[in-house]
Amino acid sequence: MIDPIDGTTNFVHGLLTWGPAVAVVRDGDPVAGAVVAPAREERYLVGPERATGNGAPLRVSDRSDPDSFVVAPILRYTGSVADRDRFAALTTRLVTELGDVRRLGSAQVTLALVAAGVLDATIGPFPPNAWDTVAGALMVERAGGTVTDLAGEPWTPDSDAIVATNGEAHDAVLDRLDGFGE
């Protein structure tokens, strides 16, 4: 599974958060992947046993209070009125229910930053593209985090949403998002 440029809008506008991503899926299960953010000089790799960032092991953050989390939403954005409304609703919910909010514009880099402990969580409450999420979701898991859908079921590339956290307060994050995206 290949995404030549995740964060295309960022790339086109000269923003630094974008990059190619590759994931290997065997019998429906992700087994390896890579996310590269060239403008940030970052390379994230994940395999069956571990995840690394620029050669160093990745580890999710250890923050346990969702009120102190730095959260970045994942949202496919086409510029449509419906997408703007979804983004506004999601941002409002995250600001009122969780800590600080950032939108980076690249799902794979966002997930890699959760795996690296830079971000504490990311939420994509609408069906994400598999090529935008598979490598990064595997990184979060290999780095010690938790990845589910909004109902708390294990995330798969076919899930209708993605919630990736450091695992310390995953259930609390899900509780605070209860009913969103329905």
TrEMBL record:
Its EC number is 3.1.3.11. The gene is suhB5. Gene3D superfamilies: 3.40.190.80, Fructose-1,6-Bisphosphatase, subunit A, domain 1 (3.30.540.10). GO terms for molecular function: fructose 1,6-bisphosphate 1-phosphatase activity; inositol monophosphate 1-phosphatase activity; metal ion binding. One of its GO terms (biological process) is inositol metabolic process. It catalyses: beta-D-fructose 1,6-bisphosphate + H2O = beta-D-fructose 6-phosphate + phosphate. Keywords: Carbohydrate metabolism, Magnesium, Metal-binding. Its cofactor is Mg(2+). This is fructose-bisphosphatase. SUPFAM superfamilies: Carbohydrate phosphatase.
